[in-house]
Amino acid sequence: MGILEKISEIEKEIARTQKNKATEYHLGLLKAKLAKYRAQLLEPSKSASSKGEGFDVMKSGDARVALIGFPSVGKSTFLSLMTSTASEAASYEFTTLTCIPGVIEYKGANIQLLDLPGIIEGAAQGKGRGRQVIAVARTADVVIMMLDATKGEVQRSLLEKELESVGIRLNKHKPNIYFKPRKGGGVSFNSTVTLTQCSEKLVQLILHEYKIFNAEVLFREDCSPDEFIDVIVGNRVYMPCLYVYNKIDQISMEEVDRLARKPNSVVISCGMKLNLDYLLEMLWEYLALTCIYTKKRGQRPDFTDAIILRKGASVEHVCHRIHRSLASQFKYALVWGTSTKYSPQRVGLTHTMEHEDVIQIVKK
């Protein structure tokens, strides 16, 4: 019995099992087994088979965005519109066969946009080069899921399921669970909140399934068994995702309104170039980037060349970005902008910078 058959057997078993108090342990065990088999499926085969051609693209720019979607939903058209790169677009499926990178220049930042080949159902098992597509998507900062507005919700749920099964969690945060395997002493289980979905017995059963008999587990929030399994496996990627509904010129206004009101969703039309500017604004918000400008002593700030950093970056991060030896020679910095109480304010290395602040660094 191959891994794929085992996975489908367990999925059928989960589907036909009623969810209640009596079956929760059984379901927890099944979910643990399922996660284990899926992890085995993603590992490269040990046999010396011919090397497949991956399409990992070198990371460039300040952030990386992956375009994921079914064939013929307008990913290549979107790339050609947003960047100066031309990606071949045609009316047949699988026009794009490898990963095509482009660069969006927005608010002084260079955002790398990856046009990936279309995903089909069963991509997580490796169908239609799905595994390479998903491997590249794991390295992105934000995923843009391109959906055909005329196909409704079917595409979205299928794609979410594919990404979920390879350990990409969309628009979720990391479960607040402390987990540490130990040399001995059995399983010590504690929680700071009342647990409604997990119990000590279920946690021990799941740990035994992974052959872990000594560990420290502390739940700081009410998590489900699935989230606890994610913490044990530890290779999950939590990333923001923007659902982009293309081809809105082919549906009614009521339907456009309904799609636009969904959380994390944007409606666009690549054919008629509708709403693309709003999509860029949303993308900037999801990437959480900040522009910081530098200033030399006695001169005006240089607003042409910004330093692009993540939200929450400190003065130390700015120093490292300018030169790696700057932080060791740092005396103090003067900052103008919204992060200070008054301008200019004299700050140290730990001061948190905000969008469009101006900084002048004074060395020892």
UniProtKB/TrEMBL annotation:
Matching entries from Gene3D superfamilies are given as: 3.10.20.30, 6.10.140.1070
Query: Which GO cellular component terms, listed alphabetically, does the Swiss-Prot or TrEMBL entry include?
Result: cytosol; nucleoplasm
What is this protein's function per UniProt?
Catalyzes the conversion of GTP to GDP through hydrolysis of the gamma-phosphate bond in GTP.
Chain coiled-coil ranges: none
Keyword NADP among record annotations: no
Q: In what residue span(s) does the OBG-type G domain sit?
A: 63-288
Q: What Gene Ontology terms describe what this protein does at the molecular function level?
A: GTP binding; GTPase activity; RNA binding
Q: Name the domain of life.
A: Eukaryota
Question: What interactions and quaternary structure are annotated?
Answer: Interacts with RWDD1; this interaction confers protection to polyubiquitination and proteolytic degradation. Interacts with JMJD7; this interaction is direct.
The TGS domain, residue ranges: 288-363
Q: Which UniProt keywords apply?
A: GTP-binding, Nucleotide-binding
Name of this protein: Developmentally-regulated GTP-binding protein 2
Q: What is the lineage of its organism?
A: Eukaryota, Metazoa, Chordata, Craniata, Vertebrata
Q: Which organism is it from?
A: Equus asinus (Donkey)
